[in-house]
Amino acid sequence: MLNISVQQLLRKIEEELHEAKGNINEARIRERIYSIKSLCELILDEQVQLAAPKKSFVSQEPVHQAQPVSIQHPKRLEIEDDANGDSLFDF
């Protein structure tokens, strides 16, 4: 992995900006701006990677055993006295 410091990237951004300012060709200016954009993204991506915790393939956390789950059946609905039966279609 190539290790480039943020200071080196900032110097390159300054060079690209200087070249963009000294150029009158719009296409060349856009090329320099895209170069600057790419360099900025490199810096931002590096900062995100440094801030993110390192992931390892071996888990450091203890393995938890699955706990049995008790399944409770729903309570039977209380039926009023004037109902005819257990079904929704019984009137």
Question: How would you sum up this structure, described in words?
Answer:
By secondary structure, the chain is mostly helical. It contains two helices and no strands. The chain has helices at 6-21, 26-51. α1 (6-21) packs antiparallel against α2 (26-51).
Task: Give the helix level as a range of percent.
Answer: 40-55%
Mind telling me the C-alpha Rg?
33 Å
User: Which regions are unreliable across 5 or more consecutive residues at pLDDT < 50?
Assistant: none
* String of helices and strands: HH
Sheet/helix structural class: mainly alpha
Through-space gap between termini: 76 Å
The largest pleated sheet is described as: none
Number of helices: 2
What does the overall shape look like? Answer: elongated
- The assembly state of the depicted protein chains is single chain
- Number of beta strands: 0
Mean pLDDT: 75
User: What percent strand?
Assistant: under 5%
Short structural description:
This protein is an all-alpha fold and 91 residues long. The chain contains 2 helices and no strands.
What is the topological layout?
Elements: H1 6-21, H2 26-51
Helix pairs in contact: 1-2
Which short descriptors sum up this protein?
91 residues, mainly alpha, 46% helix
